[in-house]
Amino acid sequence: MALLDVAAIILILVLRSLASMPLALPVNGIDLPRAVNAQPASDATTIAITADHLIVNDRPVARLRRGQVAADAKRDGADGFFITPLHEALLAAASGERLLAQLEPDRPFDGVALVAADRAVPFRLLSEVLYTAGQAGYGRFEFAVVTTR
Predict the structure, then answer these.
(1) pLDDT tens per residue across span 28-76
(2) What DSSP designation does 71 have?
């Protein structure tokens, strides 16, 4: 019986040490992103996700409650990904950027959106925002991050 107890303790210690080992990712062929102190594109449309609002270029477009957009603000109801007021605001912003691109051909509309999201924003909401932005013609995203050294 004592030998069985010793074997169980050794097994537990081995399992605990394996669980605390650092995660080994297969990084061959994967170029992992880095956070750098780079300037965002100055003409990028800004999408801010706060605890209470979705904001496009400093203008609130949708109210949030507990990290969710109201079902009536979505095209397909509560389970949908398409946020109608966000889409309308992004279409207007893209239209303005395309007009500027016609006036200044050296600054073409490139569909870049700068996303600044509170760290507590649920992944579902971030996915909805990115999907809606993609539907409005924004296919490239830059994310605002805080870098540490």
Answers:
(1) 566 655 665 556 556 789 999 988 899 999 999 999 998 899 999 999 8
(2) G
Q: How far apart are CA 105 and CA 86, in angstroms?
A: 27
Kindly state the greatest CA–CA separation across the chain.
Answer: 86
The CATH number assigned to the domain with range 45-143 reads 3.30.420.270
Measured CA to CA, the distance from residue 49 to residue 67 in angstroms comes to 9
* Assigned token pair, 91: 């279409």
- 68-69 sheet: strands from edge to edge: 68-69, 59-65, 53-56, 45-49, 112-117, 140-143
- What are the beta bridge partners of residue 53? 63
Its pTM stands at 0.72
Distance from C-alpha of 127 to C-alpha of 83, rounded to nearest angstrom: 11
∠94-40-101 over CA atoms, to 5°?
35
Instruction: Provide the 8-state DSSP code for 98.
Output: H
